[in-house]
Write a structure and sequence with these properties.
With 722 residues, the chain is α/β, with parallel strands linked by helices. The chain has 29 helices and 17 strands. The chain is elongated, with a radius of gyration of 39 Å.
Length: 722
Amino acid sequence: MSGLGKAATIALLNLSLVLALGSLGATALGQSALGAGIVAAFIATSVGGFLVALIARAPAEIAGAASSTTIIYAALAADLVAHAGSHTSVAQVWAALSVAVMLAGVLVVVAGYARFASAIKFMPAPVNAGFVTGLGLMVAWSQLGPLLGVEGRLWAHGWSGVIAHVKPASAAVGLITAFTVWAAPKLSRRAQPALVALAAGTTAYYLIASMEGLAVLGPTLGKIAPAAIAPATVASIWSFFDAHWFFATAWYVAPYAAFLAFQIIMNTALGAAAVGAIRGTRSNVNRTLKTEGWVNVLCGSAGSLPVTTIGSIALPAARMGGVTPSVAAISCALLFTAVFVASDLLARIPVAVIAGILIMNGFAMVDRWALGLLGTARRATVGRAQVLWNLAIVGAVAGMFFLGSVPLALFVGAVMAMVLLALSLSEATTFESIDGGGLASTRVWPLEQAQWLAGERGCIAVFRPRGSVFFGTADQLSARLDGVETGVKFVVLDLSRVTTMDATGCQIVAAAAKKLTGKGVTTVLGGVRPGSARGHEWRALGLTQPDAKSHWFDDFDHALEWVELALLRSRWPALETRAADLTDTPLTQGLSEGEVDALRDYVKTADVPAGPLFTRGDPGASMFVVASGFVEIRIADEAAQSTRLAAFGPGSMFGEMAMMSGEGRSADAVCLEPTRLHELTRDSFMQLAMQSPALYTRVVENLNRHLANRLVISTSLVQARR
C-alpha cells in the first residue's frame, strides 16, 4: 500500500471516530448541538492531528479526539448543564468547555517540560482500572437514549416518559450496529469494525425507513457545516471572555481539566510505548506532550474537543509500516477535505448507528484486568481478601466517576489505594521474638566468662521485625516490647530486616524504649549505624531512644556482643582492661606451672600494629593467643562486603585448626588496635610432640575441648540468624 493509500485508510478510521465522539461530546447539550459537536471533533482530529504530526514528528502516533478524553469532556458538559440549569445557553457551556481544554493543555505542556510521562507508571493499577471502567460505563450509558430513539437527555424524561418515547425500530438499528461491531473482527481480521458497523447500521436504518417511514426511527446527525459552524462557535465562545467570568469558570472546571491532562499524558505515554514495541523504535514522549499541550491551547480556544494520541488508530497505523509523520499529516488533510466535501452525506447518518458504535466502544473500555479479578474472586481460596479489596477500589472509583464526580473519584481512589497498601504491608510484616538464652555473639570469651554467660543469657530478649514498621504495624511491635517478661535486663531489637520505618514507627519504638528504661531494661538496636543515611533519617523522624551514640550498632552480632560485655562487666568490672597471661587461656587449662613454663619455650610473643594479620588463602603456619588488644576474623563476599565470623579479646585463641591441619587460612584476620599475640607455629608444635609427648597430649586435649566449645557457639549463632 502506498503512502497515500495508508493516509486514506487512517482518514477513514478517523472519520468514524469524529462522528461518534462529536456526538458523544455534545450529548448533554441536546440534538441541536450534534453538528457543533462533530465540528469540534473534526477540528481536534484534522487541525490538531495535523499540527501534532508536523511538530512532534512521532511516527504512527496519530493524534486527535479520543474516547477516553471525550467522555471526560462530555461529563463536564453534563455537569455544567446541571449546574447552570435551564437558563444556560449552549454557547456559554461550550465556552466553559473550551476553558477546560485550554487549562488541560497548559498542564500537559508543564508535564512535558517536567518529564512527567516517566512517572505515569506509578498510578495504582486498581485506580487506573477504575477510571478506565468508569469511562467505558459512562460512554455506554450516555448513548442509551440515542440508541432508543429518545431525544434529549434520558434522565430528563423520567421512567414513564422514557418508555413512552422509545422507538423500537431505532433500538433495532442500534443493536444491529452494535452486533456488527462485535462480529466484524471474528469474520475478518482486516475488517475495521466501526466502518463496517457504520455501513451496516445505516443500511438497516434506511431499509426500515423505506418500509415503515422515518417516524418510527430516531433522528440523523443533521446538518454538518464546518465552514459556518466553526466561526460561529469561536465568536460565541469569545463573547463570554472577561476576567471575572474566566477565573470563576477556570476554578470550577479545574478538576476536570486536571483529569483531562492526566488522561492525555496516559494516552500519549502508553501509545508511544505500544507503537515503539511494534516498530522497534523509541519516540520522544515529552516532546509529543509539549506539542499536544500547545495544540490543545490553540484548538481549545477554537472550541475543539481535547487532542491526544489515539491508541485505537495509532496501533493499526504502526502495524501498516511506513506511516511517517508526513503520512499522518496527509491523513488529517484528507479528513479535512472529506468532511467539507461530504458534509451533506454525513448529515444523513442515523444517531442510533453512532450510539451503537459508542456503546460497544464503552463496553470495550471496561478494564480486562478488573474482569479477570471477578473470575479470580469466585475461584480463589488463598489471597481472596486482596482480590476483593482491589475489586472494591475499581468499583468505587468507577462508581464515583460514573456518578459524575471526578474529584471525588480521585480522592476515593487515592485513599483506598493507601489503605490497601497499608494492609499489604501489615500482612508482609512479622515480629519474631527470641529467647536470648540460646543465642551468642561471634565474640569468643575466655572459658570462665563463657561458662558464666551461658547461665546469664536468659535475661536477654531479642525482637526481629521483618518488613515495614509504620503506622499500621508499629503498635504490634510496641505491644511485644511492653510484654517482656520479668527478669529481662536487656532487649536487643534487630532492625536489619526492616525495609522501611515511617515517623509513626520511629516515635512508637522510641517511646517503647523509653518505657523499658523506666522498668530497668536496657534497649539496644542492631542493624542501624548512627552515621548512615538511614540512621540520620530515623533519628530525624523521632527515633531518639535508645541513645544512638552508645546503643546503636551496625548489626545484630555487635549489638549482642555489647550486651554480653555489659553482663560480664557486672561480674568482672576490670574485664578487657588487663593483659592476659598464657596461663589465663584455654591452651594451658589444667596444666601445672612447670608444664606452662615448658610450653613457653615453644611459644613466641610479638607486638602487632593495627591492621591485617593474615588474609584468606595464606598458609596456616601458626595459631595465636591474644594477650592484649582485639582481633576479628572476617570474610568478604563478591561485593567486597565484610562479615564478621569471630572476635577475640585478651585470653582468647584462634587459628588452631589451620595450624593443626596445615591448610590455608579460610578467612582474614584483622587487628583492630595494637595487639600483643602469643604465637605457636606448626614447626614448634611438631617439636613439642617429639620432645615432650605427654605435654603435647595435654595441649591437644585442650585444643579439642576448645574446638568443641566453639562448635556449640557456632550452632547457637546459626539458630540466632535463621
